[in-house]
């Protein structure tokens, strides 16, 4: 413990902590979106518990990954060859996680298409609290693998990396609640979030074969789509409000004409 505190005693160490925390947060956007969508399938009373416990377990898995630095470096060594492309353990994890995300996203998109407002049987009681809690740390391994390897390359200081991971997870826990409530209040954005995860899953599989798109491009694309959708939702609300107002005015005018007649 004394060694851990000593490693964080210098200003340069805390600069590293802040830098890696920001890195973890930027690379963890898709993780927060997945957790929010996954937990939204639970009853409202269980969603905060699922997010908190799931992310706490995710912290444990990330710290375990950081503790096995030598093992992580071996993950990038070619293990087998498929279609002339050497695949490592890291690549296989990306492929498995990407396919899992693609399947989950397609299911979510199908469910939302069948029940856009989330009020029918298609949205009720299909997941359990335990399954959600277990899925969060498992998929977090896929999301965090590259960021952990990057953090090791940038710092190499385990106490600094562990502190950054814990701080980033605290921010994610705090942010997941407001994000969840916002998505619940704007169902069309849930559709966009599911489409974003489908895109991320596809890109994870592509990354395993070294043809992936840089994450910055994906985030910018989805941010642009999100802004457009927000304006679309706002315009739709205005149109509905005007239609209701015109209908009320027409009804009042008709009633007034009847009374005068």
Describe, in plain words, how this protein is organized in 3D:
The chain is mainly alpha-helical. It contains 10 helices and 2 strands; from the N terminus they run αααααββααααα. It has a two-stranded antiparallel ribbon with strand order 1-2. It is elongated, with a radius of gyration of 23 Å. The termini are far apart.
| Total strands | 2
Helix content: over 70%
The secondary structure category is mainly alpha
Task: Evaluate the radius of gyration.
Answer: 23 Å
Roughly what fraction of the amino acids lie in strands?
Answer: under 5%
Specify the biggest β-sheet. Answer: 2 strands, antiparallel
User: H/E element string?
Assistant: HHHHHEEHHHHH
Query: What's the mean pLDDT score?
Result: 77
Uncertain residue segments: 121-125
Q: Please, how many helices?
A: 10
| Widest β-sheet, arrangement of strands | 1-2
Shape, principal axes of CA atoms: elongated
> What is the terminal-to-terminal distance?
90 Å
For this entry, give a set of tags.
single chain, 261 residues, mainly alpha, two-stranded antiparallel sheet, elongated
Layout of helices and strands, plus pairs?
Layout: H1 2-7, H2 11-27, H3 29-39, H4 44-67, H5 69-74, E1 78-82, E2 85-88, H6 89-114, H7 129-154, H8 158-185, H9 187-208, H10 215-260
Antiparallel strand pairs: 1-2
Helix pairs in contact: 2-7, 2-8, 3-7, 3-8, 3-9, 4-7, 4-8, 6-7, 6-9, 9-10
């Amino acid at each position: 413990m004394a060694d851990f505190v000593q490693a964080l005693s210098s200003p340069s160490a805390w600069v590293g902590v802040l830098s890696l925390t920001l890195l973890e947060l930027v690379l963890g956007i898709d993780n927060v979106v997945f957790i929010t969508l996954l937990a939204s399938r639970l009853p409202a009373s269980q969603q905060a518990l699922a997010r908190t416990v799931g992310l706490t377990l995710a912290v444990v898995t990330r710290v375990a990954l950081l503790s096995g630095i030598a093992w992580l470096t071996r993950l990038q060594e070619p293990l087998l060859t498929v279609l002339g492309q050497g695949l490592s353990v890291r690549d296989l994890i990306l492929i498995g996680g990407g396919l899992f995300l693609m399947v989950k996203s397609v299911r979510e998109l199908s469910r939302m298409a069948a029940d856009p407002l989330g009020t029918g049987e298609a949205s009720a009681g299909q997941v359990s609290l335990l399954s959600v809690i277990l899925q969060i740390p498992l998929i977090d391994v896929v999301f965090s693998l590259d960021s952990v390897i990057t953090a090791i390359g940038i710092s190499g200081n385990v106490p600094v990396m562990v502190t950054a991971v814990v701080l980033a997870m605290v921010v994610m826990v705090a942010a997941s609640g407001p994000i969840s409530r916002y998505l619940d209040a704007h169902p069309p954005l849930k559709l966009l979030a599911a489409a974003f995860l489908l895109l991320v899953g596809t890109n994870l599989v592509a990354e395993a074969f070294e043809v992936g798109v840089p994450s910055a491009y994906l985030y910018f694309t989805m941010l642009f789509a999100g802004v457009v959708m927000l304006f679309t939702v706002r315009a739709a609300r205005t149109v509905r409000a005007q239609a209701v107002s015109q209908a009320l005015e027409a009804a009042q005018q008709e009633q007034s004409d009847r009374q005068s007649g």
